[in-house]
Amino acid sequence: MREKEISKKKLKVVDELINLIKSSRTLVIVAIKNLPSSQFQLIKKKLEKDAVIKVTKKSVINRVIDSIEKGTIKNLKKYLKEDQALIFSNLEPFELSLILSKNKSYGKAKIGQKVEEEVVIESGPTELVPGPIISELTSLGLKFSIEDGKINIREKKTILKANEVVNEAQASIMNKLEIKPIAVGLEPVIAYDSKEDKIYEDIKINQEETLKELKEKVIRALAFAIKLEYPCKETIKFLLRKAYSEERVLEKFLRQENLNQQNVQGG
């Protein structure tokens, strides 16, 4: 009886997930490992208008995908691991990923965790007092001095590059300085778009980095267009300014030439 009861529950979950797949545009598999329950519930509440989040076992997700008759969705199976959740939504995948990135918070680093961005210790005074911490600072190559009984960081230093793993000394210093480099949230692993019948492997969005990259590309493109003297609404004011400057230089040159000729004739 117990086995039959469990089977019925599993089948009910499978049917529910299949119906969600069929009625949603987007299915995103997200990693939830190391995500505190309180943070998970908060994100779930924020997303309730745009998405449905379901946490279930890998074996159940496999059964759900096997139950789908056709489509690219079957390729999701190779991305399945434990500690994952499913998000169903009618938003397009990248729009949903952007919402997930905006709902991240940052926590303290633990030994063995990987940081997404570089970690920099800024120069300046701290509230740290001399003691065993001095050996940790030295091991990380930090330059410091003791001022008024507290440690002062003399030069800023990068102690971790993007995607590097945190060691004991780094974790200790970051925690003591209240540096929180670990992004905590629902981490997109893979997405399926039923409208396009496509799978998207890289849907993580860092809005700040993306905007920064776009701005840099716009600046480079503008400089290149000006160099080519390509006329458009973005370049025209720079081209006119350049033409005016060149005209002034040419006028000055011609005036000097005329004076030289007059002097020759007068002489």
User: Could you give the order of the helices and strands?
Assistant: HEHEHEHEEEHEEEHEEEHH
In the residues, how many domains can be counted? 3
Strand arrangement, major sheet: 2-3-1-11-12
- Count every beta strand, where a strand is a DSSP E run of 2 or more residues: 12
Radius of gyration: 30 Å
* CATH level-four homologous superfamily name of the largest domain: Ribosomal protein L10, N-terminal RNA-binding domain
End-to-end separation:
123 Å
Main sheet attributes: strand count, strand direction, barrel closure: 5 strands, antiparallel
Category from helices, strands and their pairing = alpha+beta
Low-confidence stretches: none
Mean pLDDT figure: 86
**Architecture of the largest domain in CATH?**
2-Layer Sandwich
Number of helices: 8
List keywords for this structure.
267 residues; three-stranded antiparallel sheet; five-stranded antiparallel sheet; 45% helix; alpha+beta; Molybdopterin biosynthesis moea protein, domain 2; Alpha-Beta Plaits
